[in-house]
Design a protein that fits this description.
Layout (H helix, E strand, L loop, with lengths): L2 H8 L6 H8 L4 H26 L2 H8 L5 E7 L8 E7 L17 H14 L2 E7 L1 H7 L1 H14 L7 E5 L10 E4 L2 H4 L1 H24 L5 H4 L5 H10 L12 H6 L6
Parallel strand pairs: 1-4, 4-5
Antiparallel strand pairs: 1-2, 2-3
Helix pairs in contact: 1-3, 5-9, 6-7
Length: 259
Amino acid sequence: MKINEVKEILSQDNPNEKILEQLRNDERSGVQKLLASFDKKQEKKLFYKKEYEKKSFYENKCYNKGCKYICGIDEVGRGPLAGPVVAAAVILKQGSYFEGLNDSKKLSEKKREELFEKIKEEALAYAICEVSNEEIETYNIYNAARIAMQRAVEQLKVRPDFLLIDAMPFENYPIPNFSMVKGDEKSVSIAAASVIAKVYRDRLMKEYAKKYPYYDFENNAGYGTKKHLEGLKAYGITPIHRRDFEPVKSMIKQGGNNE
């Protein structure tokens, strides 16, 4: 068997066990290197699978209690100086699997983008909600984040039986729910919502960067980086800046308004 043929066989998801056994007895260094790489990938796949099973604990608990539609909810964008806060609500199909799914902040941009498309395609239902900087000023950022989350739930095409929420209690809410700190690290449903919300908001801020080119929104997503602050100082604030967030608030008092 040629090395290229070995490479092709080992690139398959489930190579034939008998062929694998033959290859392990092949003394060629090229074959052994390919096998070492294959084994490493298999170990990684197994690790991801076990992690996913651990992060399905709350979902499985809900399924065992008779719940059918379990919704994970998360938001992004509490800290930036500009742009909306964005929330996502996601109902995954029971038994679904998304390899490498985790808190969106712990994933590479490439992995987030990959999961974003896959989750949208395979989820039972999902919804995304923006709450603008004006509403953030009206309600404060904590309440605006909760409003975004609840609106996302209300926009779902499937009514959930139970909500799993990242760090935001939904008191006196008509749907049973459970809030947990660092939920995007503990629940696959919340992690899925985290990915949907982050990718959506990052893309949105890249679009805003075309309209407001001096603040580096395409790279900082509205957070107060050095380039963003330099842009504020040189060009003033934009209509998407949060007027009650420092240092934007102080710049308005000093007359730095570019609206």
